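Help!! Second protein's tokens look totally different from the first
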Amino acid sequence: MIIKDIKIFVCSPGRNFVTVKIITDSGIYGLGDATLNGREMAVSAYLEEHVAPCLIGRDPQAIEDIWQYLYRGVYWRRGAVTMAAIAAIDMALWDIKGKIAEMPVYQLLGGRSRKGVNLYAHANGSDITDTLNNAQKLIGQGFKALRLQSAVPGLKVTYGVLGDKKDYYEQQGDRPLPPEEDWCTTKYFAMVEDLFKEARKHLGDKVHLLHDVHSRLTPVESARLGKLLEPYNLLFLEDASIAENQDNYKLIRQHTTTPLAIGETYNTIWDCKDLIQNQLIDYIRTAATHAGGITPMRRIADFANMFNVRTAPHGAPDLSPICFSAHLHLNTWAPNFGIQEYVGLGNEQMQQIFLQDIRVEEGMAYVSEQPGLGIDFNEEAAQQYPYKRSYLPVSRLEDGTLWHW
């Protein structure tokens, strides 16, 4: 069996997605997600021009060798574009191997560590009351873990709050150029403790609460926030500060026992090595699409397990259902899995394109038992939703200084 063809699709069923389809000479094919929000066409070109020609005629079952070839075999390693391209190839090859073996991918990884995958859903609102009302609705649907985000009074736009959009997928169309948003740490601090104080009062102690700072704070501000939120027993505080300098988290860790999570923008194990081995974080949030696929995610999980760090893969709406499927297989296997971020299984258009049989009940997801990743791709439906240029926002302080979005 050899790789006969590699197709790359860029479609926009509400948001842009880059999908890879590897086809073998036997007719078996595999799917991978190469989406990189705001840089989709860069990854598509990387795959079309630089990766696909090198893989035609190769053995699709040589997953490890192909991964090393694409990572180690080039001088310019790492980086978001490179790793998203490698990730899609890797996922597709695992999908093929599972289909050849007539087994779901989690069985190839070593089998089950759990019966289902715990999820956390997003509860957001225009104010604290609105956020808590939405949280109650999610609890009514069976979710036992919620990320709470509320609009910051005095700011026109707040990260994680949908405003007049019904879901995350509606935000794609109005971002042909990067929108600019203001940030004020003082105004944020005036709101955030009240959010969790009211949450514990109205939601009780049995639901797990999480919060995403989205790297808006300096390390000393994050330390203060973690200390402030300790009475409310968060499952974790996500992306409290940028950790390009991984020593930043030493300062935060010294001042708070609130669990810390980071990693959604990381591309390799080297980005999180010091954070993990120095036990400066509690959850690592790398995503299969952005960290090179299933092969390196398995290594990160094993490494993290040595230092009591759990996995909590990124699950934003700019990761396609193929990535979510890959995460469910990894989560079902990983002995140190913690929790999976969940924003739903996509809008109606996405469900026409990405065909899946994932089951979500009472706040848990159950992986497909079909061979491979258990997901298919409707090429004809995808053609109805062509690519639309779109960007994530840009954040500035109120004096105009560019800040972390």
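Here's the second one for comparison:
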Amino acid sequence: MPAVPPWLAARASISAGKIAVECGGERVRYAELERRVRAVAHRLRGLGVRERDVVGVLLGNGLPFVEQVHALAACGATILPLNVRLTAAELAVPLRDSGARLLLHGRGALAELAASAAEASPGLKTALADPLPVRPDSGGAARSAAASAFDASGDRAIVYTSGTSGVPRGAILTHENFLWSAVASAFHLGVRPDDRWLACLPLFHVGGLSILLRSVLYGTAVVVHERFDPARVSRSLDADRITLASLVPTMLERILDARGDRPAPSTLRCVLLGGAAAPASLLERARALGFPMAPSYGLTEATSQVATRPPDGDANDAPAGLVPLLGTQLRVVAADGRDLPPGESGEILVRGPTVMRGYVDRGAASHGALRDGWLHTGDVGSLCADGSLQVAGRRDDLIVSGGENISPAEVEAVLLQHPEVAEAGVAGVADPEYGQRPVAWLVPRGGCAPSADALRDFCRARIAGYKVPVAFRCVRELPRTASGKLLRRRLAQDAEGGART
């Protein structure tokens, strides 16, 4: 692949006066962002960062994170974005696994967390992510740090999976992966000069990181929220001329609760909804208020989006499922690798230019996931006759009870139709007679939990008897990843906890 200039430097040269990022009341134009990034890149060089180094970043959402993303690319280094909610022991795993040489961190609790993680990572240096007061135009070093070209096929980021089905693994994503992801997303959703993409997802997650990178390629603005607050997001949708937003279903539901009956603002043209399967009732509720929903299926190993339902298609003409993005190929196969006909469920396979290079230092894992150019996702779904995709859930989440297969997502969707259920999670619990039995964990709406008998009757009227949970547990919150995915594995592990209803 030919060498290309850093994306931010190229964007600043043609869109200097356009807004690049808004965060915490501060508006930063592309020229100013590029100036800041040159200063940060100059400092990183001084800290010893060189091409192909892996550098960990332990920062919450904010301008410092944005600056580090682009500065590390300018240095030719690979960013390792880290989940700020992890413990020191959990952080040490990706730091050692990836061979990171430096860990950049924030102040306060993040500094303490970084120091503890470094103790378990021999040879790792730590540094505060705040840039030094360097004047980037005063010397050639700062300019050269930001102007060096890079190989488009080189590594841009190592993003660790959320670990819903085992030990987290680091997906190696290249510049080319992110470029194709941005192109395919634009082909699918369109790009407008005045687009303003709301980023309230964690930026260390592939969904949040992709927003930053695609917006630079488009020359559009990102509105970054330091954390997710449904009332604040609701106000931002109305006041900040947001045109696109990336959310997960739990976020969407809380935003709708915060808004009440207030319809979506006319400026909003797309809500990209991913991270987990969205109940039909939630989508209907959002659409009734004018929210232009674009349900999406994606995964870290494919640089976020894989297949998305366009938000502006006529309901009668829209495809039955999610449409593969430009350049993406899909297959659904049986356990023996045989391609299944439309309508039959099996494992989803993905091939295309957004698929990762492989996993970090895990030859066997990469070989198992990438076979003959196809990414074996471990997710279950089916293809429609028109080539679109229906997603059922994780294969590892499938409950096998008395020889019958039960999809937890299907049971959760039924429970979420109950007016007194705010959130629902279903997992299989070991049973000596049936092998597994489904158990449900519920977050009641308004603190009033339905009775077990009422919930069983409600489910039996809508799904087969073998799918009805044998027990219901009332909890304050469900375990989720930072990106909003339900940790069903943890539910099963914690089967003895929670109060029965």
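Reply: Different proteins will give different token patterns, so don't panic. The chain is about 30% helix and 25% strand.
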